[in-house]
Design a protein that fits this description.
By secondary structure, the protein is an alpha/beta fold. It is built from 16 helices and 22 strands. The longest helix has 22 residues.
Length: 495
Amino acid sequence: MTSLAHFETLAGSIELPGKAIIDGKLLASASGETFDNVGPRDGRVLNKVASCNAVDVDIAATAAREAFEDGRWRNLHYRKKKDILFKLAELMERDAETLALLESLDVGKPIKDSLAVDIPGAIRTLRYYAEALDKVYGEVGPGTPDRFSFAVHEPLGVIGVIVPWNFPLLMAMWKVAPALAMGNSIVLKPAEQSPMTALKLGQLALEAGVPPGVLNIVPGLGATAGKAIALHMDVDMIAFTGSGAVGRLLMQYSGQSNLKRVSLELGGKSPQIVFADCPDLNAAAVQAAWSIFFNQGEVCTAASRLLVQDSIADAFTESLLRAARKVSPGDPLEPRTNFGAMVSQEQMKTALRYIDTAQKEGASLKLGGHQTRADTGGFYVEPTVFTGVQPKDTLAREEVFGPVLAVTKFSDADDAFRMANDTVYGLAAGLWTKDLSLAHHAARKLKAGLVWINGWDSCDLTMPFGGFKQSGFGRDRSLHALHKYADLKSVSITF
């Protein structure tokens, strides 16, 4: 097993990326301003990153528009595009350890997760869409004897991609890969908390042969760089993953500019339901723990609401707590760590505030509930479990985006479905039962874009990902994502 010392040495030996990538060049911001990139592992500043604003975004969007219009990528033969994207995947694989380190330094996630989940997932996504790009077919209409009609998919143009900090490279690749596969140009803004893997991606893309101007990376603050992308008249679409508040702003900016398309994935308050006839209570308890504590609970599909049938609730909760006690906060760069730091001091304080509110509202704290490892200077919160959470409690209704689980009892299936659907969100939901009829009924009854039965997060890249209700609209992953970055044109020829 690679050691903590190895990753600390690697962190000290590599250049941490901090410059924007615009039209194929590594650049400081036009204003010369930077922002401090703070590492959640110990609260120290990792590096200074270019703080791009509307001027930088305009230069990047103009470069992306020129690249799209002259066809340097859009009109490239599909075999050549494939070769370049596969080359990029190879370079990412070559530099996987560096990418994983950058991800863990930026976000505070365990290095073993970055190495096993984040970076391999991003590479698989790129290869999937590289292979799929020549398999987008049009349609032939019924026509008449004197007319031939057909429909074709055409790239939209310039795509503004704004991604979150919890899975920085993977979320970027869910959008960048299909957008590039369809022939678009891109202006990508990573979250200010986690800019480094996106900037490294931009460097590798140039090395792989992606033409200048096709993939531009503009780090900066959401209120400046993000807003400028959303308002820019040369940006044809915004693909966003993040908070509901920002999603609403992006829709406003679309209306204030050129009615650009908007695709939003806005998180959730996902329920996991355990029925008394669960086929494996121990497996369900372990999954219930990891579905909220993986990535420190900073997951849009985190199963933050656990609904347990009352006849097994006490015994199941004990099994859950046994599993949860095995989740131990530690140094993100220590390969044995299974639970790292929260991304920022602000996010840590948010989680602690929700914990305090839950206690004031009468929920019973069964595990955790405090800041830990404060002596490191980092941002760590203990894995936390509350029981006795009522459906109207704050903890049952608002997204914490942290390692805080709300456990609630239910009586029967109707009671469970009512509580599960009693939320403004609708991203994911899951249940455990050996009753096939109940499983089928639940799959249609639960109002969520993803429904998992007898296993949380039990799907892969081949299936679409997105939400119902205020969890947003538009789909990442699967072949459906390709069509999101294209227009459908009808052509008719009269003889």
